[in-house]
Design goal:
- There is one protein chain.
- This protein is mainly beta and about 240 residues long.
- The protein has one domain.
- About 5% of the residues lie in helices and about 35% in strands.
- The protein has two helices and 18 strands.
- The protein has helices at about 5, 125-130, and strands at about 20, 35, 40-45, 45-50, 70-80, 85, 95, 105-115, 135, 140-145, 145-150, 155, 160-165, 170-175, 185-195, 200, 205-210, 220-230.
- Strands 1, 3, 4, 15, 16, 17 and 18 form a seven-stranded mixed β-sheet that branches. Strands 5, 6, 7, 8, 9 and 10 form a six-stranded mixed β-sheet that branches.
- The termini are far apart.
């Protein structure tokens, strides 16, 4: 079941992280499902683990916030408590996928109110949504949902693989639930840069984070700080 349907309006306490370290190829280059393994890092001298989905999410100029892309969620209205009534069987709709300008793993929910007799998955693209004339509202909910190839899995679980729509084609994403716009710092250790300006990471040295789930200021969106250490540094 889609967490967008079940976690409204409270914030989820996530069990795993979504790092922003290594570039990920465009979705079209990932024709087959990927099994995402945990990446080991450090938190206050202890090992911690997270999933790394790559640097798909641009940050603001000062690095303090992640940029977002809209995800369209169809509802028939609100209940007496103000909770959206999702259209059963409807898959959420996005306008960008990895590799396209404007893509982000962090999505801002746009609620689209459709008639009570609306048939699920009649709308399958942003163009469909925009031409429908249906009322839209942005409730201020951001969700961490990295798009991945169909059939992808998480080595240790932690989030469901959910189908969505992009330009009438099925896409898939892991739904990690709500996440703030603010980023959290993560440190990666390097000995310098190569001739092309690429960081030379310290082999065997995990990244270091200062926050984990439940800590004030925690976020699944990490802003990378490169820490240069001497060439003889021992991991």
């Amino acid at each position: 079941m889609n967490k967008l349907n079940t976690l409204w309006p409270r914030l989820a306490s996530l069990l795993i992280l979504a790092g922003l370290l290594l570039a990920t190829p465009a979705l079209g280059a990932l024709a087959q499902g990927t099994n995402y393994e945990l990446t080991q890092g450090w938190y206050e001298g202890r090992q911690t683990f997270y999933y790394d989905f790559g640097a798909n999410t641009p940050a603001t100029a000062d690095g303090t916030q992640a940029t977002t892309a809209p995800i369209y969620v169809l509802i028939t209205g609100l209940d007496s408590a103000g909770n959206p009534q999702m259209v059963e069987g409807q898959h959420n709709i996005v306008g960008v996928v990895p590799g396209e300008a404007g893509y982000s793993d962090l999505w801002e929910v746009v609620l689209v109110t459709v008639p009570a007799d609306y048939q699920a998955d009649t709308l399958k693209s942003v163009d469909d949504v925009m031409s429908s004339g249906y009322e839209m509202a942005m409730p201020g909910l951001l969700v961490n949902c990295p798009i991945v190839p169909a059939g992808s899995t998480l080595a240790e679980g932690g989030a469901p693989l959910v189908q969505g729509w992009h330009d009438g084609e099925a896409i898939y994403y892991f739904d990690f639930g709500p996440n703030p716009r603010e980023t959290a710092p993560i440190s990666a250790f390097i000995t310098g840069l190569d001739d092309q300006g690429h960081p030379l990471f310290v082999e065997g040295k995990g990244t270091a984070v200062g926050r984990r789930h439940g800590d004030p200021g925690y976020s699944d969106c990490w802003y990378v700080n490169l820490v240069t250490v001497p060439a003889g540094y021992q991991a």
